[in-house]
Specification:
Number of strands: 20
Strand content: 15-25%
Strand order of the largest sheet: 10-9-8-11-12-14-13-15
Shape: elongated
Distance between the termini: 64 Å
Largest sheet: 8 strands, mixed
Radius of gyration: 27 Å
Oligomer: single chain
Number of helices: 20
Helix content: 25-40%
Structural class: alpha/beta
Mean pLDDT: 90
Length: about 525
Amino acid sequence: MMSVTSESAPCAIGTRDRWPPAPRPILIVMHPLHDIALIDALGADLRSAGYTGPGVAAFLGEDAEEALGRGIWWPALHATKQAGPSRLGTLVRLLLLACDESVREVAEALPGCLIDDLVANEVITVDGLTARAALDIRPHADDNRDYLVVSDLDAATRTGPVLRDHVLGIGGASMSLARAVIREPVASALDLGTGCGIQALHMDSHCERIVATDTNPRALALAAATARLCGMSWDLRAGSLFEPVAGERFDLIVSNPPFVVGSGGQDYIYRDSGMAGDRVCERLIGEVADHLNPGGTAQILANWIVREGEPWDTRVRGWLARTGLDAWVVQRELADPISYVSLWLSDAGENPGDLMRRGADWLDWFRREQIAGIGMGLITLRAHRAGETREPDQVVEEITAAGEEVTGYEAKAFLDRRAYLRDTSDEHLLAARLSTAPVIFEQQSLPGDDGWQQVGASVRRPGGPAAVLGVDEVSAALLAGCRGVVPLGTLIELLAGFHGVDTDALAEAALPVIREAIGRGILYEAR
């Protein structure tokens, strides 16, 4: 559908204001869900039918809902059929399961919306008496409230590859970033590369002002619809990287950019930046310091090249060295080229006939660039506080174990612990009353001639990313004695006397272990 409107119109419905006047009429493609009145009516109809996170979960039942979360759709379809005719059943089949539904039943399920308006706004398509979803509109929730999120249908619910301006919905990467964001109240936040708006959606509960950007006009339109459906107001802007916010600074910057490593093409806007290799992530990291307020935080999902013969962290350390920011880089996965290319080809629903050709071209480029693998993970950055002058504190590590994903709580705690260690002298530590967090003491043994022989021991804080510390007999005893009552120096003195060693020598040996334990959240100062 074509329409005459202004250049700024695609972003206008992200706020509660009316569309701005057109500075000069131009001919553009009308974006989906451009009708604010329809968005409001659609939201009211969906909620009145019980199309919410709790409502759908109760309707489907625990087993079917859990299966749907794993991509198994047929138990959910069976549950809707068993429940009998209902508005909610029709909406679940139409919007969640992408089933064909009769136009009459869709009209009954959405009584406040006209079928013609739903078609004109690309919510559904109609073929005779049959309707089918053209957009993905699904309930989503966090600990605070229930939302509705608008995106394009993914490859599993449509035929053929997705379109170039495809807008991703709620996925594994977006949710891992959402879980990792530090949820402290801040005045200003930037969601760079907002897509359907999922990061802005979660930031709305703790950020006074949110700017959300994207290069894809369709993404901005769907993010605007998401914001409107959820009663939120974001400042939506079109543009690449930090261009839309030139000269501005924020307390929090979050980005799930189009980080896919490739030759520099842009087959799909959601994954391909148009920059060769990992250049988009390099630029993001290199420019982010200019847009952070003192003490501000940035959290960015990134991919980085690992070249043949180089340690995996070579490239990302090079990016960090020029920022002047504190950093915590966690590599969650190192993918080989074939696995990496296969993942992204299948993600886009590529036609089988194109897979081999496109995959071969991609792998040939990797070989020419001597790329042995692609690192994938989270980069958390923090600017120095006002007036603070020191070298940046940067930690780069690989944490791949299941159950040790970075959460917002753990990210904040990590940065706070690093600040504590920087600000705390050895003298203060020796006088401090330290406590041991809830940990598990583990011993590693191997079978020998005389039975099991211990070869190592460690303490582990369950759920903490890389929160494990190797210990010997003395350090294990020292940790066990840290109960927030006796100063550390006194504990070391008692252990030195028991083992018949010099107290100062034991303190010198123990303090690095104590600092490492504090850094991993295994020890903390009781106050």
